[in-house]
Design a protein that fits this description.
By secondary structure, the protein is an alpha/beta fold. It is 42% helix and 10% strand. It is built from ten helices and four strands; from the N terminus they run αααααβαβαβαβαα.
């Protein structure tokens, strides 16, 4: 889904290699390694939904969410895999800066949920995240219970603004039409925690839907925000 539309189920892609390659060629982006982690099929919700939040979600929303997780939530194990296995492998086999200041994570939809969770759980590993079309509602219908549980978690776990940068966005079509109410609350919370325009960005793209081709159109924005060369 990140690199090659000819191998994807919907024949769409993020165009990550084209976007990043162009920005680097223009001198606008630091030399960057992108590591794409496979989507694990029907375990995607179990791996990507923030595990520590599940227990604080009221019924019936909690049960509705768990129905989407065969075997139960495993996001904490997924993050341990990234931090303890995947990142050390990349650092050992490629020319990287290993510190948090040069390490970021990002994704869309549930990938946005787990990316934000990763920065909160491992603030000394990741110094920032981009969360596109973040799937705050968890399920496939509008609700406030699941987003509010995440907000309660964030209130206690948002990393220090002095050392972290966060990017959010969403459209207003298809699933993206569900996200504005919660994103507004998230924006207010980050501002209250000391974030400002230098380390926090939240954008709305009217007409954009929950689809790779729309994420590709704006992917240069979060990459430039997080990884842009110092002016």
């Amino acid at each position: 889904m990140l690199f090659d539309s000819t191998t994807t189920w919907n024949r769409k892609e993020w165009q990550v290699d084209e976007v990043v390659g162009k920005l680097i060629a223009l001198g606008q982006l630091k030399q960057t390694i992108i590591v794409g982690i496979d989507n694990n099929g029907n375990k995607r919700e179990a791996e990507f939904f923030p595990q520590k939040i599940v227990g604080s979600i009221p019924q019936p929303q909690q049960s509705d969410l768990l129905k989407l997780m065969p075997g139960g939530p495993i996001a904490d194990s997924y993050l341990r895999f990234i931090v303890k296995e995947l990142k050390p492998y990349i650092d050992a086999h490629y020319s990287t800066y290993k510190d948090a200041r040069h390490t970021f994570i990002g994704g869309s939809s549930l990938g946005g949920m787990i990316s934000l969770y990763a920065v909160c759980e491992y603030p000394n590993v990741f110094s920032g995240a981009f969360c596109m079309s973040t799937h705050w509602v968890g399920t496939f219908y509008q609700n406030s219970q699941i987003p509010d549980a995440y907000l309660q978690y964030l209130d206690k776990h948002i990393p220090a603004p002095q050392t972290h940068k966060l990017y959010f966005d969403h459209g207003d079509q298809t699933l993206d039409s569900l996200y504005a109410p919660t994103q507004g609350k998230v924006d207010a919370l980050f501002k209250a925690k000391g974030y400002n325009a230098s380390n926090f960005k939240s954008l709305i793209f009217p007409g954009a839907a929950h689809v790779e081709s729309d994420w590709a159109k704006r992917l240069s924005i979060p990459f430039s925000f997080l990884l842009g060369r110092d002016k």
